[in-house]
C-alpha cells in the first residue's frame, strides 16, 4: 500500500496511531512504527526532559519515522513542546489544538518546525481549521470526528471527512474518529481519505503500556457505555461510564457551569493516571475511550491494526467495487 501519506511521512502503511497523553508512550510508538505505521508520542503535556527520554527510547528501538504531539494553544507548554521536538530531531510533529486554529500562530510554528526538518501532521475538528492548516503549510491533515477518543471534537466524522475532502486536494486527508475495523477504512477511502488514524483501538493492544484493566474495560464496553464528561471545563472528553463518571455527571447536572468546573476538576484529578497505571477502573480511575469501544472485541497485537488491517482494507475496497 503506498500513497501520498506514506510518501510524505516515509511509512509503509497509511495508518497513524493517535497521540494519547500518558498512554502512547515509547513502547506503543515503537510497535506501531516498526509495524509500518506512524507511532505518535503522547507528548502534549510532557516536560522537556520526559520528551527527550521518550524520544531516546524510541530511537534505541527503531529507525523508522515517528511523531510527537504538540498542542498549538497559547501557554508555556507550546514553547517547551516545540523546542523539545526540534532539539530532539523528531521527524514528524503531530500538531493539535483544543481551540480554533489561528492562521498566524499555525504559520509561525509550522514554519519553525519545517525549518528544523519536521513534517507537519495537523489534526483538525472542523472545515475552517482544515483550510487554515492547509494555507499554513501542513503536510498531512487528520480530520477527527466527534466520535473520536480524547477531547470531544465538534462535527460528525462522516460529515467532516466529506467536507474536508471536497474542499482540499493539495494535502492528503487522514480520517479519524470511531475507526477500528478495515471496512470502515474502505468507506473512508471512498470519501477521499488517504489514511486512517486510530486511538482507542491502539489502547486495546498488547503493546500499549497501560494497565490490563483499562484494555479489558474497553473490550467489555458497548457503544452506549461511552459518555461525554466535562463540558463545564470547556474540554469535554469521552470516557467509560463507571462510578467515577456517574459522580462527575452528577456534579455537572446539579450545579451551574461556573460552580461545577472546580468541583469537577477536584473530583477527576489524577483519574487518568489512577486507571492507566494503577488499574483502578471503577471508583476513582477514568478510562478514556472513544465511542468505537463497541467495535473492539479483543486485545490485539499492534501488527493486526497496521499491516494485517491494510491487507483487509484493500480487500474490502475491491469487494465494494465488485458489488456495484
Ligand atoms: C486515552 C486517550 C488519550 C488521548 N490523548 C490525546 C492527546 O494527548 N493529544 C491528542 O491530540 N489527542 C489525544 N487523543 C485523541 C487521539 O489522538 C485520536 O485522535 C482519537 O483517539 C481518534 O479517535 P478513536 O479513539 O475513535 O480512534 C486521545 C485519545 C484517547 C483514547
Please describe what this structure looks like.
The model has no long low-confidence stretch (mean pLDDT about 95). This protein is an alpha/beta fold and about 325 residues long. It has helices at about 5-10, 25-35, 50-60, 75-85, 105-115, 125-135, 155-165, 180-190, 200-205, 210-220, 245-255, 255-270, 270-280, 300-305, 305-324, and strands at about 15, 40, 65-70, 90-95, 120-125, 140-145, 175, 195-200, 225-230, 235-240. The chain starts with a helix and ends with a helix. The protein folds into two domains: about 5-205 and about 300-324, Aldolase class I (TIM Barrel, Alpha-Beta Barrel), CATH 3.20.20.70; about 210-295, no CATH class. It has an eight-stranded parallel beta sheet with strand order 1-8-7-6-5-4-3-2. The protein has a two-stranded antiparallel ribbon with strand order 9-10. The protein contains 15 helices and ten strands. It binds flavin mononucleotide (FMN).
Amino acid at each position: 500500500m503506498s500513497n501520498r501519506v506514506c510518501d510524505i511521512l516515509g511509512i509503509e502503511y497509511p495508518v497513524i496511531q493517535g497521540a494519547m497523553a500518558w498512554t502512547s508512550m515509547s513502547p506503543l510508538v515503537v510497535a506501531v512504527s516498526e509495524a509500518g505505521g506512524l507511532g505518535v508520542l503522547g507528548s502534549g503535556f510532557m516536560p522537556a526532559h520526559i520528551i527527550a527520554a521518550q524520544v531516546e527510547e524510541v530511537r534505541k528501538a527503531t529507525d523508522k519515522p515517528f511523531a510527537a504531539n504538540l498542542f498549538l494553544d497559547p501557554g508555556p507548554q507550546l514553547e517547551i513542546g516545540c523546542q523539545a521536538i526540534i532539539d530532539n530531531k523528531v521527524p514528524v510533529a503531530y500538531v493539535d489544538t483544543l481551540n480554533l486554529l489561528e492562521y498566524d500562530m499555525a504559520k509561525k510554528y509550522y514554519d519553525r518546525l519545517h525549518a528544523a526538518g519536521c513534517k507537519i501532521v495537523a489534526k483538525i475538528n472542523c472545515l475552517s481549521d482544515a483550510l487554515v492548516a492547509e494555507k499554513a503549510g501542513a503536510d498531512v491533515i487528520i480530520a477527527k470526528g466527534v466520535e473520536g477518543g480524547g477531547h470531544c471534537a465538534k462535527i460528525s466524522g462522516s460529515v467532516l471527512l466529506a467536507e474536508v475532502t471536497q474542499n482540499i486536494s493539495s494535502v492528503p486527508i487522514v480520517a479519524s474518529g470511531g475507526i477500528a475495523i478495515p471496512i470502515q477504512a474502505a468507506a473512508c477511502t471512498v470519501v477521499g481519505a488517504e489514511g486512517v488514524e486510530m486511538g482507542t483501538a491502539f489502547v486495546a493492544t498488547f503493546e500499549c503500556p497501560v494497565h490490563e484493566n483499562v484494555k479489558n474495560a474497553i473490550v467489555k464496553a458497548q457503544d452506549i457505555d461511552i459518555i461525554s464528561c466535562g463540558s463545564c471545563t470547556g474540554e469535554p472528553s469521552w470516557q467509560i461510564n463507571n462510578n467515577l463518571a456517574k459522580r462527575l455527571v452528577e456534579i455537572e447536572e446539579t450545579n451551574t457551569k461556573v460552580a461545577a468546573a472546580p468541583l469537577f476538576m477536584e473530583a477527576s484529578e489524577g483519574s487518568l493516571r489512577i486507571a492507566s497505571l494503577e488499574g483502578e477502573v471503577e471508583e476513582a480511575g477514568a478510562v478514556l475511550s472513544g465511542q468505537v469501544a463497541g467495535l473492539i472485541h479483543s486485545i490485539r497485537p499492534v501488527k493486526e491494526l497496521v499491516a494485517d488491517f491494510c491487507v483487509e482494507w484493500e480487500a474490502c475496497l475491491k469487494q465494494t467495487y465488485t458489488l456495484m
